[in-house]
Design a protein that fits this description.
661 residues; alpha+beta; eight-stranded mixed sheet; five-stranded antiparallel sheet; 37 strands; globular
Length: 661
C-alpha cells in the first residue's frame, strides 16, 4: 500500500496554478436564440478580457466565435451593463444581429451570413466618457428598441435614461436626431421593452432614486400605435415596497411578472387593464433575484403555455412550471446553480448552469424528452477533478440566534494529507453586492487555495439574496455591522468546532465584500490578515464619487443623508484606520468608475506611519472586476503570498509580495 505523504496545510503542491485559474475565470451570459441557432457572450481573459459573441449553428455543430478580436460585446449602461445584443432571422435567410461594442459603446448591426458583410454602426460616436450608451435591445421592424443612457454633464450622476428606437438603416450613425425617444426621462432607470406577440403592447420596468431595483420597481405598460409610438403609458404593478425583477409575455399574449409582493420573488400573471396579479406558484422560494443589469431572465415562456423558471433557496435550479395547475417539475442533471440567462426555442430551453464539479456552461433542456446536455462553453477538465474542492452548504447561528448561510470548502488534495495535530488556515470570503449571493459551484480561484491546503468559507451574510425579502432587509442601515458580525460568527464557529485554526483566519472580499473585509479588520482582532479587492472604504466618498446607479445605495445600507456622516465615522475603514493592526493587501483597478481608486488612496494615507504591514497593488486598465488574465494571475499570487507570510507557510513557488510598514 502506497504511503500518503504528510505536509503542513498551505504547503501542498497543486496543478491548479494562477494561470489556469485565470484562464477559466468568468461565465457565459445573455443566452438567446435566433431561429434554430443559439447565441451567447463569453469571457476571453487571454484576449484582453473582452467578451466574445458566440454562435452555435442550427446543425448542432460546435460553437464558434462570431466576431474576432477586438470586437467586445459588452454594454456600459449603469456601468454594470445589461443585455448587449439581440437577433432575428432575416426574410431572405440568415441572422441579423445588433450589438454594443464596449470600446465606443455604439450599437452595430451585423449579418454574419451575408457575403462581405461586417459590423456597421447604427448610433453616433459618443463623447469622452461615453456620452451615449445602449442596452437591452429588441428588434422591431426596421428599428432597434432599447435603453438609451445619455450623459448630460461631467458628473457621474449627470445622466438621463429613456426607451429609444434606433433605425436599422444606419441614419442615426451620423445624426443623433434620427433616434426616436419612446418615453420621457421622468424615471431614472429602466429596462428595455418587452413587446407582446402581436406587437400592439409593450411592458418594461422602471425605478427611481433612492430605491435600488430590489427595493421597489414599477411595471409600466403602453399600447404601441400604428406609427410606432407608445400611448397611454401607465404603471400596472409595483411601487416603492414591491420589487419586480422581470416582465415577460407568453405566446398567447399573457403578461407575466416576477414580484416579491409576498416576501419572496414568485411568478405572477398580470392583467394590465386592472393591475390584478395572480401568483402562479406560491412558494417560500425565489423565482427571481436582484436586477443589477437589464436583460436578466429568470423565467422564459414556452410555446405550449408552460414556463421555464429558475427557483430555489440560495441557489436556483431549472424547472418547468404549468401555470394553470401550479405543478413544477425540475430538470434532471448534475447542475445545482443556474444564472438568470434563460432562452427558449420551440420545446428547448437554454441557460447557464454549474455544479460543484463543473464551472458555468451553456445547457440545453429538451422539454419534450426531458433530456439535458451541455452545448457550449464546456470546461474540459484541464487537471484531475480529484483536486477540486467538495463544498458543504451549512447554516450557522449569528448574533441573536439569527441564521447565517455559508458554503464551506475544506482543504482537499488527492495525494497529500496534513499532520494529525494541525488545524488548517481558513479564509472567509465575503461576496460583493452586497445585495447578491454566492452558490457552491466549481471556482478554480477557490480550488487554487483549497488544493494547497488553505480552506475557504463563502458567507451569504444577512442582506444576501436567495433567502427572501426579510433576510435581504437585515442589512438595511446595518452595512458594516450585520455583514461583519455574520462573517465573524461563521469564522468563530469553524474554529470552535475544530475545523479551522483560530490563529490562522483571514478574510477576503471584492467590491462590497472588500468593504466587509476592511471593516472587519477595524471591528475585530479575529483575523490574522485580509485581502481587500477594489473595495468601498469610505461611505461619504462612495456616495459622492461612485456611478449613478449606486449613488444613493448607501441610504438604504447605512442611513439617510443626515446620518451618513456619523455612520461614516462609526463604520468606514478610512475613518477607523487607527483600529487596524492586521496585515493586508489592497488590489485596485485604476479605471474603476464604481469604487474609484481615490478611496484606496485615502485609506492608504490614513494607514501611513501606523507600522501595519501591507501592500498596494494597482492595475492599469482594469475597472470594477478584473478581466485580464495577467491581472488575475498577479492578484491571486499576491493574495497567496500574503497568506504564506502571515500564516507561516513554507513554499517557494509563489512570487513574494513585499509588505511595507
Amino acid at each position: 500500500m502506497a504511503v500518503v505523504p504528510t505536509r503542513p496545510y498551505g504547503s501542498w503542491p497543486s496543478p491548479i496554478d494562477a494561470e489556469l485559474a485565470a484562464s477559466l475565470d468568468g461565465r457565459p451570459e445573455y443566452v438567446g436564440t435566433v431561429g434554430p441557432e443559439v447565441w451567447w457572450t463569453e469571457p476571453r481573459p487571454q484576449e484582453g478580457g473582452r467578451r466574445a459573441l458566440v454562435r452555435r449553428p442550427a446543425d448542432g455543430g460546435p460553437a464558434v466565435t462570431a466576431l474576432p478580436a477586438p470586437w467586445n460585446v459588452r454594454s456600459r449602461v449603469t456601468e454594470y451593463g445589461g443585455s448587449p445584443w439581440a437577433g432575428a432571422e432575416r426574410a431572405e435567410g440568415g441572422p441579423l444581429l445588433v450589438f454594443v461594442h464596449f470600446a465606443d459603446q455604439r450599437l452595430y448591426a451585423y449579418e454574419p451570413d451575408a457575403p462581405g458583410s461586417g459590423p456597421r454602426p447604427l448610433t453616433p460616436v459618443s463623447g469622452v466618457g461615453g456620452g451615449l450608451r445602449w442596452a437591452d435591445p429588441v428588434l422591431r421592424g426596421g428599428e432597434v428598441w432599447c435603453v438609451l443612457e445619455e450623459f448630460t454633464g461631467p458628473a457621474p450622476t449627470d445622466v438621463r435614461r429613456v426607451l429609444a428606437a434606433v433605425p436599422l438603416d444606419g441614419s442615426a450613425a451620423e445624426d443623433r436626431s434620427a433616434v426616436r425617444e419612446l418615453t420621457d426621462d421622468r424615471y431614472r432607470f429602466s429596462t428595455g421593452p418587452r413587446l407582446s406577440p402581436d406587437g400592439r403592447s409593450a411592458a418594461w420596468l422602471v425605478w427611481d432614486h433612492p430605491r435600488m431595483p430590489w427595493d421597489g420597481t414599477e411595471l409600466r405598460f403602453a399600447e404601441v400605435t400604428a406609427d410606432g409610438t407608445l400611448s397611454g403609458s401607465r404603471t400596472v404593478l409595483g411601487g416603492p415596497d414591491e420589487a419586480i425583477a422581470q416582465v415577460e409575455w407568453t405566446a398567447d399574449g399573457t403578461l407575466l411578472a416576477v414580484s416579491d409582493r409576498g416576501g419572496w420573488w414568485n411568478p405572477y400573471r398580470v392583467d394590465p387593464g386592472t393591475g390584478w396579479a395572480v401568483n402562479l406558484c406560491p412558494r417560500d422560494e425565489e423565482f427571481g433575484g436582484p436586477l443589477w443589469k437589464p436583460g436578466l431572465r429568470w423565467l422564459a415562456p414556452l410555446p405550449d403555455r408552460l414556463v421555464a423558471v429558475l427557483h430555489g433557496r440560495g441557489s436556483s435550479v431549472l424547472g418547468i412550471l404549468d401555470p394553470e395547475s401550479g405543478d413544477l417539475v425540475d430538470a434532471a442533471g448534475p447542475w445545482t446553480a443556474w444564472q438568470p440567462a434563460l432562452a427558449v426555442s420551440g420545446t428547448r430551453v437554454y441557460g447557464v448552469a454549474a455544479s460543484p464539479r463543473s464551472a458555468y456552461e451553456v445547457v440545453e433542456l429538451d422539454t419534450a424528452t426531458g433530456h439535458a446536455r451541455v452545448i457550449g462553453a464546456h470546461g474540459a477538465d484541464r487537471v484531475d477533478p480529484a483536486y477540486y474542492p467538495e463544498p458543504q452548504s451549512r447554516t450557522f447561528l449569528g448574533p441573536d440566534n439569527r441564521e447565517v448561510h455559508a458554503h464551506v470548502y475544506p482543504p482537499h488534495h488527492p495525494a497529500v494529507r496534513a499532520p494529525a495535530d494541525e488545524l488548517p488556515p481558513y479564509v472567509v470570503w465575503a461576496h460583493g453586492g452586497p445585495t447578491d449571493h454566492v452558490s457552491p459551484v466549481l471556482d478554480l480561484h477557490i480550488a487554487y487555495f483549497t488544493s494547497r491546503g488553505i480552506g475557504v468559507v463563502e458567507v451569504n451574510y444577512g442582506g444576501s439574496t436567495g433567502y427572501g425579502r426579510a433576510y435581504r432587509e437585515r442589512l438595511r442601515e446595518q452595512w458594516g455591522v450585520v455583514d461583519v458580525e455574520d462573517c465573524a460568527a461563521v469564522a468563530r464557529a469553524l474554529a470552535a468546532e475544530g475545523t479551522a485554526d483560530p490563529a490562522r483566519l483571514a478574510i477576503r472580499g471584492a467590491s462590497a465584500g472588500g468593504w466587509t473585509a476592511a471593516a472587519s479588520l477595524a471591528a475585530t482582532d479575529l483575523y490574522a490578515c485580509a485581502a481587500i479587492i477594489y473595495p468601498v472604504l469610505d461611505l461619504l466618498g462612495f456616495a459622492k464619487e461612485t456611478h449613478d446607479l449606486e449613488s444613493r445605495y448607501v441610504e438604504g445600507l447605512a442611513g439617510p443623508p443626515q446620518t451618513l456622516a456619523v455612520r461614516c465615522r462609526e463604520r468606514s475603514p478610512v475613518a477607523r484606520a487607527d483600529r487596524i493592526t492586521a496585515p493586508f493587501v489592497l488590489l485596485q483597478g485604476l479605471d474603476d468608475p464604481i469604487c474609484p481608486p481615490a478611496q484606496a488612496e485615502r485609506f492608504l494615507a490614513a494607514m501611513q506611519g501606523r507600522q501595519v504591514p501591507h501592500a498596494y497593488v494597482p492595475f492599469e486598465g482594469e475597472g470594477h472586476g478584473f478581466r485580464r488574465a495577467d491581472t488575475m494571475i498577479r492578484a491571486l499570487e499576491a493574495e497567496l503570498s500574503l497568506y504564506v507570510q502571515v500564516f507561516g507557510i513554507e513554499r517557494t513557488d509563489v512570487p513574494r509580495l513585499e509588505l511595507w510598514l
